[in-house]
Structure formats: structure tokens, C-alpha cells
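A quick word before the example. In earlier lectures we treated sequence and structure as two separate objects. From today on, think of them as two lines of the same record. Here is Phosphatidyl-N-methylethanolamine N-methyltransferase written that way.
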Amino acid sequence: MASVQLSELVDFNQKSLLISAASIAFNPTFWNIVARQEYHNKVLTRLFGGKSQTACYFLAATIFSLGIVRDLLYERALRHQPIHPLLDTDEVTYFGYGLLALGNLLVISSTWQLGITGTFLGDYFGILMDDIVTGFPFNVTDAPMYYGSTMSFLGSALVYSRPAGILITGWVLFVYLIALRYENPFTAGIYAKRDAERAAGVKKDSKKKQ
Ligand SMILES: *[C@@H]1O[C@H](CO)[C@@H](O)[C@H](O)[C@H]1NC(C)=O
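And the structure line, produced from the sequence above:
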């Protein structure tokens, strides 16, 4: 059996591949920098005259648009890549569509549950959720946005029959796992602070009543 070189499956000379990889890494980097600036210095809220809700919607629209650009760059990168015959079958194509459907279901249901501000970093603007959301899709995964998006990347790779897409999906997962390690402790901290303040408030109230 002939050994297969990665360079036969993926055309690394295509600039579009690098551009796609860069845009995938750029997006979470961008929103984390902006969100932390908002949290510490209220940068966006000030820009919108103290209206944090409006500022958060603006960030949501920006992140959403960046996501569309990222998806277009990924599709373009795929079209520049070689097709592999093993991926060029009906079964693989259907499996790819299945992954796309499942990935989109996770992303859309998660947005449905969290709302716009809950999905797009509202916590950093001081717009906190009242309670932890535990219904679907949060009963199947703790990060439905990220895993759903990763599934969609893999689904497209299979629908397009491009091994390069599988490689990029690995990169997407890697970027998201780093983002989660960076974001989760910070958001947990925001809610821990709120809960501590709530508890202190309750104590004060009960003292008043005595
Ligand atoms: C998650 O919740 C949905 C809807 O409530 C339910 O149909 C599904 O069985 C649950 N899944 C798990 C793994 O609990």
C-alpha cells in the first residue's frame, strides 16, 4: 500500500487556506479582546452613550458579520483544494449534510435559549442571565455554539470532499478549545461576583427585618 503524504491531500500553496485559518483564529481573539475591554473599561458602552444593551447588540452584529466572512473564506479555501475520491461518495456527502444540520441545530437552539445578549457576551456588559440555562442543547454539551460550529466545518469539508477541510476543522476545534479555557473561568468569575453580591444583599435585607 502506498503511503499517503499530507501534502498530497492538502495544497499548502493555496493562500486561501492560510487566509481561512487566520480568519478562524481572528474571530474569537477579536471578541475576547473587545469583551474584556468592555468589562474593564466600558469601551463599547461609552461609545454608545452609556447604553450597554445597544452596545452589546452592536457587538453581536459585528461578530455575526465576521462569522459570515469567515464562512465565505472557508468555502473559498475549500474550492481551491484537491478533492479526494474517498470523500467523493454519496454516503460521505449525506453524512456531511447530517453534520451540517446537527451543527446548525446546536448553534440555533443555543441562540434561542440564551437570546442575543446571552449569546454575544452580554455578561461582559453587565447584562447577566438570571439562571443557568439547562435545557437543550445545554443538556447535551456545555458549549453548543463551539461544538456546533465545529460540526458544521466538518460537514462542509465532507460535502465538498476536501481533506483540507478536515484539517481546517481540527484547527477550528483547537482555536475554540483555547477560547473556552480563556472564557469559561472569566464568565464564571462574573457570575460568582453577582451571586456573592446577591447573597450579601439577602443578608442585609434579613438584618433589616429583624
Ligand atoms: C435534552 O433535552 C431535550 C429537550 O428537553 C430532550 O428531548 C433530550 O432527551 C435531552 N437530552 C439529554 C441527553 O438529556
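Notice the following. The helical segments are 6-9, 15-41, 43-47, 52-79, 90-119, 144-159, 163-209. We will return to this example when we discuss secondary structure assignment.
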